[in-house]
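Structure ticket #2291
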Amino acid sequence: MPRTVTFQAAVVLMLWCVVRALMADAWATPLERVEFESASQRRMGALIPGDRIQGDLAKPDGAGPYPAVIGLHGCAGMHDTTKQRLADALVAWGYVVLLVDSYATRGIDHACTSSALVTFFKRRPDAYGALVFLGQTFVDPHRVAAVGFSAGGWVTLSAAEPNSFEHFAPPSNLRFRAAAAFNPPCKQAMARPEIPTLIFIGALDDWTPAADCSNKIASWGNDGPPVELVVYPGAHHGFYYPHLQPGMTLFDHWVEYNGEAADNASHRLHQFLDRHLKADSGNRN
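Resolution: structure written out below.
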């Protein structure tokens, strides 16, 4: 009898796992692959055409217009689990999300070593091209935030700088309304952001050290929109990525998921986006 019960329990458990997996797939926010152009750039009087770029788009049901978030991946791209986590959360919060893929059409595997700086300059126009692409009926183009990870956080901080789009074409009054950066290389950031900015970083990050962000923010002073830094004790680089469990060494740096820090960052990000993208939206959604 015990063997029979054990076998039956195993069958029930197996069926329950299958059902849960099917339910998770059914509840997952669908992502649509889209293609658009990165922004053209003006250089020494010449207009340099933008590249064709791909991305993954998700949106709430209904006509909108909704506020939106443009996601900018790290130097190794964005893992599917992170894409889905962001899409599920942001759409549930009432945001359109466009996760930009700066690598697929350029044939780039990663840019985590010596190619980082060159790739950064290629990616800056992608953020603006994504902003122009979101000028669609279901998006309020004046309520868009940039959210970047690691190298994408560097692009995000660059997009938040004053006059960051003045060299891009076509001319437009479109600007990001807010910016959030996970594990950005703050040492590379230049001018103080001209829009509200939120930075998340792990205290044990040995790739983009938290001290660099503290020092950079101190050097910027307090004049201008708020710039908030959240440092998570015990957290490493990549703490938001669920696939980094257990932790591992990647390009000579330790990367590891931290569920407590990731959940808190999601909560803070939700509050931040609502505060800066929805506070004055009235009843448009």
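Closing remark: Helices lie at 2-27, 80-92, 116-133, 151-159, 210-220, 259-278.
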